[in-house]
Amino acid sequence: MALEDFMKQAISPWMRENGPDSDIVLSSRIRLARNFSNVAYPILADHKRLEEIHDFFKKEYDGQSFDDDRNFSFISMQEVSSIQKRVLVEKHLISPHLAKNSQAAAALISENEQVSLMVNEEDHIRLQVYFPGFQLPEALKKASALDDWFEEKIDYAFDETRGYLTSCPTNVGTGMRASVMMHLPALAITKQLNRMTPAINQLGLVVRGIYGEGSEALGNLFQISNQITLGKSEEDIVGDLQSVVKQLITHERNARSRLLEQSSTEVEDRIFRSYGVLEYSRIMESKEAANRLSNVRLGIDLGLINNVSRNILNELVILTQPGFLQQYAERKLSAGERDVLRASLIRERLQLEK
């Protein structure tokens, strides 16, 4: 596939599938950090060595397939515009770090966008696998199989005592970050999530925004992931995260029920007011759009709104990001121009459902 193919649709093909508990858990992800054993980490390696890794992946894996992961496309960051990089970040196909670091950086992305591998990010290899809904064990199984496939041609930096060696000490061991993206509007509205976060942190997990470390939790979307990678197996890490996520799902559902029982009029007003604003506004900032879309999604999940599909809301969350708006307009836009176009696209997309 060409780069343009990844730019066409805001929502990745795998995201159109319904997964377990998809009313609350949007996606499950496993990310593995790996390095070549005989090459300095990207922060220290000379450009020539990083170029050799870049060229290795292009030669060995461009156009290749592994099981259901078809037609991997190799994309060199040197050939990608700043707007295109931003779109890839917004679709979670690459990290903000890779987008900024274009020195011999690249990405290897499967046709359905369920698998992507970042080359010369903080580590030589950052492999990530996504599944819709709450499917951490399934994501781990696929990531492990892909990891074995790549290891057939790569000698990983590995220590018998410490495990996989990585650029950042916090990734040493399994080199794995397991995470889920959750929509938790009721816990956010009732302020319960603020009280839960310290307890979650004490269990070796962290609550972050939609784009991971340092990002804001727009639209009540939160990423829950492990912090500990050393001293535990991959299965134990996933098991611990699963246990906490199950509790969060239960708490969120209970909070939604209580909101309907105790404040039904206020909840309905919040939801339908947001729907009306989205349907008729001419100017819409990104933060407001995310919050309004979150309210409408809550209305869909509660059965109050029946004429809008959940997938459209998933699509609009990404489509209304700055990169996608500029990709759609085929030019750089000022903040004000983005706000006008954002409102227009939301109106048009909602109109298609009628």
Structure explained in plain terms:
The chain is built from 13 helices and 10 strands. The protein has 354 residues and is α+β, with helices and mostly antiparallel strands. The chain is 46% helix and 15% strand. The protein has helices at 3-8, 47-61, 82-90, 96-100, 136-151, 185-189, 192-202, 234-262, 264-280, 286-301, 310-319, 322-329, 335-351; strands at residues 25-34, 73-76, 106-109, 115-119, 125-132, 158-159, 163-164, 176-183, 205-208, 221-226. It is globular, with a radius of gyration of 21 Å. Helix 9 (264-280) crosses helix 10 and helix 10 runs antiparallel to helix 11. The two termini are 33 Å apart. The strands form 2 sheets. The chain has an 8-stranded antiparallel β-sheet with strand order 2-3-4-5-1-8-10-9.
In short:
This protein is α+β, with helices and mostly antiparallel strands. 46% of the residues lie in helices and 15% in strands.
Low-confidence stretches: none
- Total helical segments: 13
Shape: globular
The arrangement of helices and strands along the chain is HEHEHHEEEHEEEHHEEHHHHHH
What structural class results from the helix and strand content? alpha+beta
Family: Belongs to the ATP:guanido phosphotransferase family.
Pfam family, one: ATP-gua_Ptrans
EC number: 2.7.14.1
Keywords: Allosteric enzyme, ATP-binding, Kinase, Nucleotide-binding, Transferase
